[in-house]
Amino acid sequence: MSNVDLKKLIKESIRSLSPYSTESIQSEIKLHANESPFPPPKELHDQFTEFIKSFQLNRYPDPDSKKLKESIAKKLDTKKENLVIGNGSDEIILLLLQVFCKEGDNIIIPDPTFAMYAIIAQSLGVKTTIVPLDSSWDFNGNLLLETAEKNKSRLIFLSYPNNPTGNCFSETEIIKVIEEFEGIIVLDEAYYDFSQKSFINEIKKNNNLIVLRSLSKIGLAAMRVGFGVANALIIKEINKVRLPYNSNMLSQKFAEHLINNFQLVQKQIDYIIDERKRLTDELKKNKSLTVFPTESNFILFKTKQSADELFYHLLYNGILVRNLSTHPKLNNCLRVTVGTKSENDRFLSEVKTYSMK
Ligand SMILES: *Cc1c(COP(=O)(O)O)cnc(C)c1O
User: Fold this and answer.
1) Distance in angstroms (rounded) separating the CA atoms of residues 279 and 285
2) What angle do CA 207, 195, 116 make, to 5 degrees?
């Protein structure tokens, strides 16, 4: 029998972390996680189940995800050497922090933004400095650069569009930061398909820029596929710390298949963009809400009354959204993912019922 002091053995940077909370609340209508409301189109699914029959499950998957990279390279007009595949783009965030930061180093993130940057950084003993966003959820390039210089920051993470605010930061400020920062800029374009705005073309001119993309928001969240685009030298270094079989056979194959038949998925994306407009316009008619502009597949809004009350009203009526109101800058704010037309109608109708109470 052994009874070692486990608490003493666990690193302080891990003990002080609180677990990432994803709502595990069961709900009929899930508008809390920015997933696609649609599974991949049936044609894709049917072909994929055919592929599975020929899989050699006793063999390791391709450690270089060659075929998947070829599909992506063709679609994005880039090269295999500029790509890394992750088990979700979250994994690439981890890999980048491993490659560029040692314990005690500093990174910069805007606030509010995606929680994982700071969580993964802390798990590695890397310090995070936040730069507060202004009232239109944008930042000043000079201020960001000054903060980076003061802290000798090695990495800047920018979510573009930004989660949870939904907007894209100003292009001129981003370009300024890319051109003047003497470290690495990571542009996390997880919601690219809904904004259609990208900095991928800047990679050719700027060797300090890394763009992240994900298939999680366009119907393949369960498969965990994300990828990074960067200078070939950066990719080479990432490959040294990446576990050899980080991307499994099923994920590689389904992702490749989906990218090769993207026109089918594009129809779903177009539907969501249309619904985003309708949902925004309808929410704006409600005088007790402030609706923030969005270029993603979700909408951030602020309630005049208590956001907690609206959150629970929705939940009791079978609709789960993301409650952000504990964040100091997001007082009384909720985030709703654009769903199907009927899901959005149910959501709108419950918001209306609540507001009339
Ligand atoms: C959802 C999300 C991700 C995570 O994507 P995965 O590929 O599922 O790991 C990354 N960045 C942002 C900003 C996100 O919102």
Assistant:
1) 10
2) 65
Question: How close is the Cα of 79 to the center of ligand 1, in Å?
Answer: 23
Q: Which atom of ligand 1 is nearest to the CA of 90?
A: 9
Residue to mutate (ligand 1; options 214, 217, 254, 337; most atoms within 8 A of CB): 214
Pocket test for ligand 1, best of 163, 191, 210, 224 (most atoms within 8 A of CB): 163
Which among 120, 115, 64, 123 has a CA at the least distance from the CA of 96?
A: 120
Tokens encoding 318? 């079978």
pTM of the model: 0.96
| Domain coordinates in residue numbering, the chain | 22-40+264-355, 57-262
- Residue-level pLDDT, tens digit, the chain, 357 residues: 889 998 899 988 888 888 776 657 889 999 999 999 999 999 999 999 999 999 999 999 999 999 999 999 999 999 999 999 999 999 999 999 999 999 999 999 999 999 999 999 999 999 999 999 999 999 999 999 999 999 999 999 999 999 999 999 999 999 999 999 999 999 999 999 999 999 999 999 999 999 999 999 999 999 999 999 999 999 999 999 999 999 999 999 999 999 999 999 999 999 999 999 999 999 999 999 999 999 999 999 999 989 999 999 999 999 999 999 999 999 999 999 999 999 999 999 999 998 876
Atom of ligand 1 at shortest range from CA of 162? 13
**Which residue minimizes the CA distance to atom 11 of ligand 1?**
190
Q: State the closest ligand 1 atom to the C-alpha of 91, by its place in the atom list counted from 1.
A: 9
Write out the H or E segment, with its range, that includes residue 31.
strand 29-31
Question: Does the structural domain 57-262 have CATH classification 1.10.340.30?
Answer: no
Q: Which amino acid is at 124?
A: L
Is CATH 3.90.1150.10 correct for 22-40+264-355? yes
The upper half-sphere exposure of residue 99, i.e. CA atoms within 13 Å in the direction of its Cβ, equals 21
Ligand 1 binding pocket (C-beta < 6 A) is 34, 88-90, 114, 159, 163, 188, 190, 214, 216, 226
